[in-house]
Amino acid sequence: MDYWIVFYLKNIYTEVMKSSRFFNLYFDPIRLAASLVITFLPGILGSVVTINSVNTWYSTLRKPFFSPPNWIFGPVWTTLYFLMGVSLYLVWISKKNQKEKKKALVLFMLQLFLNGVWSFLFFGFQLPLVALFELIMLWFILATTLRSFVRISSTAALLLIPYFLWVSFAMLLNAAIVLLN
After folding, report:
1. How many angstroms separate the Cα of 151 from the Cα of each of 84, 130, 142?
2. Looking at the chain, which runs of residues are DSSP E strands?
3. What is residue 62's three-state secondary structure?
4. Helices 128-150 and 154-180: crossing angle, nearest 10°?
5. How far is CA 161 from CA 5, 80, 107, 139, 158, in A?
6. What is the mean pLDDT of residues 80-107?
7. Of the candidates 142, 156, 140, 134, which has an alpha carbon nearest to the alpha carbon of residue 87?
8. What's the pLDDT at 43?
9. Residue 11, domain CATH
10. Residue 93 has what DSSP assignment?
11. Which of 36, 103, 133, 141 could, after both became Cys, cross-link 85 (CB 3.0–4.6 A)?
12. DSSP state of 96
């Protein structure tokens, strides 16, 4: 593992602990573990259909010049799901406005569901155009989730920024694949 990843994760842990003390929150290892399991689940389920298509159908597609190598997706998604899990945890344990918190959690679960569905549409059913439209919906729901999270925990919202940027890039990549094929 690269040292910068360890350093980054250590800083996130420190920030989580600082924000917990700052907002008078408590550390709940059960909720943290549940948050991580919840966020990793769509990735695990999606990887089942992705693995079967990456070296077969996906390798036959024409891709844009900016398409990253296949090996990068695993580490990127692992990092993003971890950040999403910590973000979910921070909102879940927050003592702030419960109505806003409930809305934020529903939005998070909706975008997480859409995240998982994309793999099945793109890789499982091999429908890049349908997957693109679904990804556009995911992008808007994720943007709304970010707005909702920032009202509860700025740290939680910041942890979702890399995911938002990656989904934006994925949307561009998906659109280019649709246009090229």
Report:
1. 17, 32, 14
2. none
3. coil
4. 160
5. 16, 10, 16, 12, 5
6. 95
7. 156
8. 93
9. 1.20.1260.100
10. T
11. 36
12. S
Alpha-carbon distance 65 to 155, whole Å? 34
The count of domains in the chain is 1
Q: Domain limits at 144?
A: 3-180
- Cα–Cα dist 8/70, whole Å: 23
Burial 74-96 (b: 16+ CB within 10 A, else e): eebbebbbbbbbbbbbbbbbbee
CB 181 within 8 A of CB 62: yes
The amino acid occupying position 163 is Y
Q: Which contiguous run of DSSP H or E holds residue 134? A: helix 128-150
When the pLDDT of each residue in the chain is averaged and rounded to a whole number, the result is 91
pTM of the full predicted structure? 0.85
- Which of residues 55 and 88 earns the better pLDDT score? 88
Over residues 21-31, mean pLDDT: 71
